[in-house]
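MOLECULE: protein
FOLLOWS: sequence and fold
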Amino acid sequence: MNDINIKYKLWLEKDGENILGKGGAQLLGIINETHDLGKAAKKMNCSYKYAWNLLQKIKQRYKESPVITFKGGEGGGGGVKLSDLGKYLLKIYNQFQEFIQDSLNNPELWQSYGFKIELKNVLDGKIEEIEMDENVCKLKVALKNNIPFCSIITSEAVEDLNLKSNKKVLLLIKATEIQIKKEDFNEN
């Protein structure tokens, strides 16, 4: 799948109504940084009115404003900041955006869904035995042709992955250091 790019659109809904998409999230993020709707609109390359209408659309659909506006003194200096709702919506949107992006960049996850990904250092195996204490776990895995393989992982990872004897697994070798032990054997 190296010649295919995955594209997606993410938006938040409430009661079947679109509340926040990419543009709205970008606007909230810039407002959170600048506290200035004019600067946010300029940075997004859109009109002030368009940016204001995005905020009003969220307010109309959610029945609460994502921003709090405040007036300045005689010389101006007013501004805008995110309300608790605005902070919440931006946080949720960014968390799911990051989750999706991490998922798209995770070849192990792709393989678990049956996609063939070209990876080096991936081995198919079946768990034969699990020796676990409170911190670490030693997995004994049989590779193809019953070649034995041992791996040390955290006990927490064993629980999170729900690893059990006779379960098929993919082993991804990501080693920065490998130790090799020479077996005693007769050299002829």
